[in-house]
Amino acid sequence: MDRSGANAVGAMSSMSSQGVPMEGVKFSTETGDTNRRALRDIKNLMGAPIYPCAVSKRGLSDKATVDCKNQGVILGHRPMTRKYAATLANKAKICHQEPTENNERQKRSATSAQISNAFNASNAAYDEDHQSGDEFPLPMMEEMVSTELKEIEMEDLEEDTAVPDIDSFDSKNPLAVVDYVEDIYNFYRKDENSGCVSPNYMANQFDINEKMRAILIDWLIEVHYKFELMDETLFLTVNIIDRFLARQNVVRKKLQLVGVTAMLLACKYEEVTVPVVEDLILISDRAYTRKEVLEMERLIVNTLQFKMSVPTPYVFMRRFLKAAQSDKKLELLSYFIVELCLVEYDMLKFRPSLLAAAAVYTAQCAIKGYKHWDRSCEMHTRYSEDQLLECSKIMVEFHKKAGQGRLTGVHRKYSTFKFGYTAKLDPALFLLGTNNI
Question: Could you tell me which residues belong to the region Disordered (predicted)?
């Protein structure tokens, strides 16, 4: 069957679908009418998207982009992705060399001007830029690509200086409060000075001295171990004692009463099961009565203005050990070292966060046998190795002499199986030398 003649342009019969002649209907039969729009151009093909306007708002393919530009069609909006920007940059020279039809562009511009009123101001301005010239605004596009490349470089730089994430594996643990942990420790750092005392407050005491304080703390460490209390209770107990003694003169015979009462207050704040007053009286060999304990409790809380919650070295120890990716051995040695510092009055000159960081650093050096302070530890503790060396050297001295003298409560505690015989580990003596290892 010959289909060429039936389908030829101008060969259409002037008949309706029922075979009735259609008078007065004029068909384009002139071969010179070449401006007739093809079906594919008016988007009436099956599956083609239909828009209420003549200009598509979606981005076109690369081939369609070149075709439409040659025909003078205004390009729709396509997201300026990095891949798309790179494609336009590679084809910029080709687009520049291809001719355009000025008459057809002017016709299309009139239609586009009416449609652009429906767009917002930014899109309208974008359309006008593309209509005004015979080629794409390559300088603007190149500037955009250059800006995006700079942003990528800045992102890489920020990633290099970012704090290592140590909380990702706790994201599903509600007790780890991953969403708030950084805010919590930022607050601790701002508030830790409120829990510090003057390193020479004993000069204002007339009946007690630094050695008596050391004896009291050493004894309380044994009481804390006997009662199997939480670690934070011990640190808060010592903090309450120092803050109270810094504001209130105490006679020698009442110093032990201050100690047991401070532990009672710390237990009420930290423990689930609080030791009863009678237990504390019994542990102090019945040197005080229940009434005296309660009166001292009232005096302490009023002197401290009921401010019991302060950042102690313990809260920083938990965070810094996590940053160091510690195991049980490193954890026990770090606590052994920092508890030795609780007994020493001279260590009050260091901030709680510095004490905790120096304890972790000293323990790492003792276990590894060389100086070790990685980027994660430095970023999370906010202390460099040089800032820790002074405090760390003092800790090494305490570690070396822990089993000597009369105050050996911490050494005996960490010489047990429960604490992994940690006190028997060798100290990092090389930190005391002048040569860096």
Answer: 1-32
Domain count along the chain: 1
- Residue 175 forms part of a structural domain: no
How far apart CA 209 and CA 220 sit, in angstroms, is: 17
* 407 alpha carbon, distance to own chain's centre: 42
What are the angstrom distances between the C-alpha of 207 and each of 210, 245, 304, 346?
A: 11, 12, 21, 19
Which residues in 123-145 are b (16+ Cβ under 10 Å) and which e?
A: eeebbeeebeeeebeeeebeebb
3-state secondary structure of 21: strand
CA distance 221 to 4: 106
Listed residue (254, 243, 230) closest to 348, CA to CA:
243
Residue 392's nearest CA partner among 353, 349, 363, 367 is: 363
Using alpha carbons only, give the angle 319, 400, 388 rounded to the nearest 5 degrees. Answer: 40
CA distance 325 to 97: 62
Give pLDDT tens digits for 81-103.
Answer: 666 666 666 665 454 544 444 55
Nearest CA to 59 among 85, 77, 74, 43? 77
Q: Which of 37, 14, 15, 38 is nearest to 26 (CA)?
A: 14
- The DSSP symbol for 76 reads -
Q: Is residue 234 part of a domain?
A: yes
CA neighbours closer than 13 Å in the CB half-sphere of residue 145: 15
Distance CA 88, CA 99 (A): 17
Q: Is residue 103 assigned to a domain?
A: no
Enumerate residues 6+ apart whose C-beta is below 8 A from 361: 372, 373, 377, 385, 388, 392
* Residue 383's CATH number: 1.10.472.10
Q: 354-392, pLDDT tens digit by residue?
A: 999 999 999 999 999 998 888 888 988 999 999 999 999
Report H helices in 116-249: 121-132, 138-161, 181-191, 210-226, 231-245
pLDDT < 50 positions in the chain: 1-34, 37-77, 93, 95, 97-101, 107-127, 130, 132-145, 155-160, 434-437
Cα pseudo-dihedral 132, 133, 135, 136, rounded to 10:
-40
- Range of 392's domain? 189-432
